[in-house]
Amino acid sequence: MLAATNRSDVLDPALLRPGRFDRRVNIELPDRKDRLSILKVHFKDKPISKEVDIESLAAKSAGSSGADLANIANESAIVAARHNRKVIEDEDVVAAFEKIAIGPERKSKVMSDKEKELTAYHEAGHAVVGHVLPDSDMVHKVTIIPRGGTGGVTWFIPPEDKSYHSIIEFKDILARMLGGRVSEEIIYGPDRVTTGAGSDLQKAAELARDMVINQGMGKKLRDQVFHSDEGIMLEKLMHERQYSDETAKVIDDEVEALITEAANRARIVIKANKTSLEDLKKALLEKETVEADEALKILKGSHMPKDAALY
Fold first, then answer.
1. Which residues does 143 contact at the CB level (< 8 Å), separation at least 6?
2. Core-most of 168, 170, 272, 284, by most CB within 10 Å?
3. Is the dihedral of CA 135, 139, 140, 145 positive or negative?
């Protein structure tokens, strides 16, 4: 994702903690079955086309709260009304879902040709890395149309809800997060990378640190947990941590190692699949948005380099 303001409101379902717990709002998130029930309730009294697949919407809306789902239903009706439709069509639901999940399109924002090219390379980098790595989620959409606080979005959606994630899965997520920055580096040079990757880097650092201190997924600190979410606020108020300076240094080293490894893997994947990167970049400049089916066709020839494999 290219963050136009170094900020992103996108919730990647793969980044949720085991148990489907959303730390942003301190609530338990509904699973797929519950999401379907909630959506049916909110669409019940709305005129909706038989072509609208509510089950598909429930499947791909992992990470959504009950309030998010209600907003999707209400926004679908607004979109349909805006187009003078008497019933809600599938395209209305898709538009509503994407607005709630990744923010509204900002087509009024004008980008120069140079910015469009950079954004296309950035998003293509995310997509190529995420597509190639075996334990990453599927590419759902790639766009260089600014949405919310972002300059472009590469959206990954898991094929099914997951309660747990392995170290290998998290490492693939870290690598795809850094795919945009690495793509900029490869195309333009290491000193011409931009601030657009600010949100990606922040989220990668947060995930890597969470792996080490909360999930016991460090290399040297395997199976050790240093504080829980409930203790974070108390620690901040007391201005102290529950481990030594020596342990803090090891944690920092572990986090740095995870980020370095992820960047190196992304670099290997992109260099080995330069043709796919260029093809997707070209498609994005022509169409601005590439949906899942077309993205898969473009990336079909991509391959997994041995040097980037974890197993």
1. 123, 152, 153, 284, 288, 289, 290
2. 284
3. positive
- pTM higher than the cut 0.90: no
Measure the CA angle with vertex 140, ends 137 and 145; round to 5°: 130
Centroid of chain to Cα 164: 17
Which CA distances in Å does 171 have to 4, 89, 204, 211? 25, 39, 10, 10
Tokens describing residue 18: 């085991």
The pair of three-digit structure tokens given for residue 31, joined into one six-digit string = 């699973």
Give every CB contact of residue 297 below 8 A, 6+ residues apart in sequence. none
The Cα angle at residue 90 between residues 80 and 84, in degrees rounded to 5:
20
- For residue 93, what are its two tokens? 């639901």
Q: Residue 125: which H helix or E strand, with range? A: helix 113-132
What is the per-residue pLDDT across 103-153, written as a single tens digit (0 to 9) for each? 877 766 678 889 999 999 999 999 999 999 999 998 989 999 887 667 788
Is 123 a catalytic site residue? yes
Q: How far from 165 is each of 14, 20, 59, 71, 162, CA to CA, in Å? A: 8, 11, 18, 28, 7
**Is 120 strand, coil or helix?**
helix
- Catalytic member of 115, 123, 184, 254: 123
**The tokens of 21 are what?**
């717990």
Residue 210 and residue 212: Cα distance in Å, rounded?
A: 5
| Other C-beta atoms lying within 10 Å of the C-beta of residue 140 | 17
Neighbours of 198 (CB within 10 A): 17
Three-class DSSP category at 226: coil
pLDDT digits (tens, 9 = 90+) for 189-220: 999 999 888 889 999 999 999 999 999 999 98
